[in-house]
Design brief:
The protein is mainly alpha-helical. The protein has 16 helices and no strands. Among the domains are: 43 residues, Arc Repressor Mutant, subunit A (Orthogonal Bundle), CATH 1.10.10; 88 residues, no CATH class; 111 residues, no CATH class. The protein is elongated and about 55 Å long. The N and C termini lie far apart (55 Å). The N terminus and C terminus are likely disordered. The chain binds a DNA duplex through helix 3 and helix 6. GO terms for molecular function: DNA binding.
DNA sequence: AACGCTACCAACCGCATTAGC
DNA sequence: TGCTAATGCGGTTGGTAGCGT
């Protein structure tokens, strides 16, 4: 069943490429350009299948590929885009110049995914998963190593640029309560590195209270009613951090490329869609594709016809896509398309 | 030194989509 | 319109380097 592997023919090499093979491929493409991958290997003197040549070129040899570690901004963008597009690596790569879909996919699976899990965030849905979080270790570590009254929770959470806001607030609540009333944790902070059993027990008790408090404020798994409860307020620390850390917002590029301002959206009928940058409209299309909005009655037009003064407070975090069912996902996407795009454009006022 | 484990990432596989006839 | 080849894409595999024991 299925198509036979393209490299099954005798004599075709598989596995890692040698520098000589790379050079042959580079030389050929520089002379003749890329394309016609099936005939390329023979013409270039390579004992490889065309598919292998194409992958080698697009994922490694292309001159515009950026090598090296991902920057903070790139990582932020990946998380943001992944929350919107899912595993559409090529769509994500299209918005990260110099990075390939393969590279982004690998980086996601080996770095970001694990980090999100350690933060208690489901990397698939970008929702908070307290069962994934080793909260006890996190807080115990912090409480045993207080360096000042201003705890660096960003660092505590793994130097994450995109802090799980709920976790941040919960931890801050715990720490501020502890600072205001050291007795809340019994004997206060133990000086030794290893907390006493009594301390751990009291910490666990306090954690339970915090978790109960948190569970009441967290979005439930039925976001169709209100997928973004009070999140504008909750996300303020995140937004501030993003802006101050590197003055970076991945949407800004899109907005700048589209040469848009909020005024472009009010009134809606004045929007000249043809003037929009293709990358911007493609993003909308990708999101629509992911959300299946074409069948839901939403379109590019409906997005742009939404008043900029969104009635629903939204955040720019990638960690709030709470859509474990189709209905929930549709609801999220509907709100995203109706409100978040215009809201995102508000950052143009800060530029 | 040898072994096992883990992380990383290039490369492969196979299905989906597009293009050309 | 249907077929086939070409290309795109996402999931997975396997080699290897680094580290700890």
């Amino acid at each position: 069943m299925g198509r036979a592997p393209c490299c099954d023919k005798d004599g075709l090499k598989k596995g890692p490429w040698t520098p000589e093979e790379d050079q042959k491929l580079i030389d050929y493409i520089q002379k003749h350009g890329q394309g016609s991958w099936r005939t390329l290997p023979k013409k270039a003197g390579l004992a490889r299948c065309g598919k292998s040549c194409r992958l080698r070129w697009t994922n490694y040899l292309r001159p515009d590929i950026k090598r090296g570690r991902f920057s903070f901004e790139e990582e932020e963008a990946i998380i943001q885009l992944h929350s919107l597009l899912g595993n559409k690596w090529s769509a994500i790569a299209a918005r990260l110049p110099g990075r390939t879909d393969n590279e982004i996919k690998n980086y996601w699976n080996t770095h970001i995914r694990k980090r999100l899990l350690s933060m208690g965030i489901d990397p698939v849905t970008h929702t908070h998963r307290l069962d994934l979080l080793d909260l006890s270790a996190l807080l115990t570590s912090s409480l045993c190593n207080p360096t000042s009254s201003q705890f660096d929770l960003s660092g505590l959470l793994g130097l994450e640029p995109l802090v799980n806001s709920e976790l941040l607030m919960m931890a801050q609540n715990l720490l501020s309560a502890q600072c205001q009333n050291p007795n809340i944790l019994g004997q206060g902070l133990p000086e030794q590195q290893h907390p006493t059993p009594q301390f751990q027990e009291q910490l666990a008790s306090f954690q339970t209270q915090q978790l109960q408090h948190l569970s009441q404020r967290l979005p439930t798994c039925t976001p169709s009613n209100d997928p973004f409860p009070d999140e504008a307020r909750l996300m303020q620390p995140n937004v501030g951090q993003l802006h101050t850390s590197a003055d970076f917002n991945p949407w800004q590029d899109i907005i700048m490329q589209a040469n848009l301002s909020q005024n472009d959206f009010v009134p809606a009928t004045s929007v000249n869609y043809e003037s929009l940058d293709p990358s911007f409209t493609q993003l909308i299309a990708d999101i629509s594709d992911v959300c299946g909005t074409s069948s839901q009655g939403y379109s590019l037009t409906s997005v742009f016809s939404t008043p900029a003064s969104s009635p629903t407070p939204l955040n720019s975090s990638s960690t709030h896509l709470n859509s474990s069912t189709e209905d929930e996902r549709e609801s999220y996407c509907s709100n995203l398309l109706k409100y978040q795009i215009p809201d995102l454009l508000d950052v143009s006022n800060c530029m």
